[in-house]
Amino acid sequence: MIELDFALRRGEFATRVNVTLDDRVTGVFGPSGAGKTTLLGTLAGLVKPDAGRLVVDGEYLLDTERGIDQPLHKRRIGMVFQDSRLFPHLTVSRNLEYGYHRLTREQRRFSLTQIVELLELGPLLRQKPYQLSGGQRQRVALGRALLSSPRLLLLDEPMASLDVRLKMQILPFMQRVRDEIDIPMLYVSHAIDEVLQLTSRMLVLEHGQVIGYGDFVDVMRDTQVLALARSLGMENVLQVELLSHHHAEGYSVAKLGAQSLFIPLSARELGERITISTAASNIALAREPVAGISIQNQLPGTLGQMRQVDHRMLVDVVLDAHTLVAEVSEKSVQDLALSPGMKVHALIKTQALHLYGQAL
Amino acid sequence: MSILQLTPEEMAALWLSAKVAFFCTLLILIPGVLLGWVLARKRFFGKALLDSVVHLPLVLPPVVPGFLLLLLLGNQGFLGKWLQDTFGISIAFTWMGAVVASAIMALPLMVRSARLAVSQVDRGLELAAQSLGAHPLRVFFSITLPLALPGILTGMVLAFSRSLGEFGATITFVGNIEGETRTLPLAIYTYTQIPGGDVPALRLVVLSLLLAFAALYFSNIMEQRALRRIGSGDDRA
Known about the structure:
Chain A has 9 helices and 21 strands. With 360 residues, chain A is α+β, with helices and mostly antiparallel strands. Chain A is elongated. In chain A, 39% of the residues are buried. Chain B is mainly α and 237 residues long. Chain B has one domain (8-231): MetI-like fold, CATH 1.10.3720.10. Chain B is built from 10 helices and no strands. Chain B has helices at 8-41, 47-59, 63-73, 78-87, 95-119, 123-131, 136-165, 168-174, 184-192, 198-229.
């Protein structure tokens, strides 16, 4: 159990966090500047809050009232950083042993071989960090942190600098650690899908405040959180109600306002409200309904605001009860003569709709 | 006698220079690294002042520090008298005085190199080491120091070379005593002042060149080796 209760002000930025986390793995989610790094820094002892308490499993790491403030090296909080921070002059095996060596036999929660096997580090042991790929580095960093036998593991965007292929390679190891290592973890990311691969328990931060804590689907019901997810480029996060399942064909039908939407087969009960999302780039626009096309969803709507972001045109499509955001090229805008107020159809492939809160 | 043959006086100057430079480098190694580390990593009141004082010898005419040393450590000097009365040590007009004079002149070069080297060590690595349970002192010796080593080696070679070339502060503080304080530059100067001294002067000039070149070459090799250990040597650039 991790009790966080602190306040901190640094110039314009102010944060106030008061929450008790009781999950094995908690995802910490929020845009940059939301206070994720401050939260981790405060836990690790890098950031001194103006006032507050930090209690991990009954032990006080910080209590400004009683003058307790354990230094970083005594907190026993393992960290895995985005940039791995392996010691470049040491081999992988020396990196792994860095925190491990200093512990007494009783303090060690795992053996070296155990972690080497769990993370399949055997072939890397004699190498230097510069010889490793990004994914391998993160595996070593994870192993190094675990071997220091921390009481809490903080993962700060550990996969953010990896491409999708490497993420897919390291994810199973993260899941292995989650399933086999009995250490509470905070997994910080701005990529919600990544967090959901590891846990559905989520702490959502914005502007230094906790705006939601709980199961993802419940948290997402909160309008404040929904607005945030939108602003982060998960442009279309929608709540829909399940109308029918078509097991043989592998799809479900859901109600979005007064319209029906074909979505991938959901495991949830009929009548339940679920959260789905799709990126703006998955939505195409047509001026007329299109016949003879495999795309099932053709939602009539009206063009709203259009804005240019880098080389993308983001276009609002106002439906009866929701607004979708579609991404189109500048050329399409010219070819179709798109302008606000125009009637269009939003085309969305069934498989392009992402279902949250299924069996992850 | 061959033109390349060193006379005993020249040999003495060479050995004296090597001895002074070696002990000078040794003397400032630890204070230089510590000062470099403090200036790179710490914030405190009077930091700018300390920084200026350390660097002063770089911009002063060398005879000024030499004269100040004489005032302070000379036999009639405030510290010199105390050293004489308490320990019976007198360093003015001895080779040890030459070491002190060149140490003062070489310290800023050592500090600058160490400071640069330490500031280029990623703070994140030090914090990562601490999060693994290492005491800051252990972090310094196991992470900061090894990673700053190439720069510290450069500083050592610069200090060594500076000491070999030290002239003004030395001659002011410890004079020009053959076999005791007459280092290579002082010997060269002396030969240029006497008739027929051109040939021995030239010999010592060539010797100085070789010595300086050898020091730089050695430092380059050491630095490359140290960089390769952390995977950032020229061979990968």
